[in-house]
Amino acid sequence: MKNPFKKTYTENELEQFDFLRNFELFKNLTEKELMIFLPHMHYRSYVKDEVVFFRNDPSHALYLIKKGIVNMTLDVNEKFEDLGEVRMHEVLGENCLIEGTKRPMNAVVTSETAFFYVIPRDNIMRIFDSRPEVKMKMMESFAKTNEYYLKQVFKCYRSSFGLFSLSEIFKN
User: Fold this and answer.
1) How confident is the model over 94-107, as pLDDT tens digits?
2) Residues whose CB is less than 8 angstroms from the CB of residue 16 and which lie 6 or more positions away in sequence, other chains included
3) Distance of alpha carbon 165 from alpha carbon 10, whole angstroms
């Protein structure tokens, strides 16, 4: 028998929950916890060659790609080195979860159009302040993602030993 007191969600809200669960940061959240983010999600469209953010910009928002392709680059000695592409259901700017961070790379749209849901950092921090269990779940996911990337750095280092100094990674 169905519980008549259980919160029900609209079809649109359920679609948004499904969308959010495509991202590692949101996978472990309940529907009730996901619901907290919906009023803070702003739909934004970009066109080809539009910059989402530049390296060293303050990390003021989390970007969830709904559609499109974004090229990530690093500017080194006045040249741009491609770091790869991110696509639908990938996140940009997850370092906004940490206070005082800046963007570590550039993000430029390479598809004809790209669509994002953008969640401002200030809104995320208010949610974290009022719901520490949400913060804990999301920070655990964030840590797992960073651990994966660190393992990739070490894997690349081992395969190209001598091309760069690993000790540089750990310097201030």
Assistant:
1) 999 999 999 999 99
2) 34, 38, 41
3) 53
Q: Hey, what amino acid is at 52?
A: V
The C-alpha atoms of residue 123 and residue 20 are separated, in whole angstroms, by 16
Q: What gap in Å lies between CA 150 and CA 169, rounded to an integer?
A: 10
Architecture of domain 11-160: Sandwich (2.60)
**What gap in Å lies between CA 67 and CA 133, rounded to an integer?**
30
What are the E-state strand segments in 48-105?
A: 51-53, 61-67, 70-76, 79-86, 91-92
H helix or E strand, kind and range, residue 118: strand 113-120
Cβ(49)–Cβ(113) under 8 Å? no
The C-alpha atoms of residue 25 and residue 92 are separated, in whole angstroms, by 11
Question: Which secondary-structure segment (H or E) carries 157?
Answer: helix 132-159
Give the sheet arrangement for strand 79-86, strand by strand: 51-53, 106-109, 70-76, 79-86
Token code pair at residue 112: 């004809």
* DSSP code, position 129: H
Distance, in Å, from the CA atom of 31 to the CA atom of 72, rounded to the nearest integer, reads 31
In this prediction the pTM is 0.85
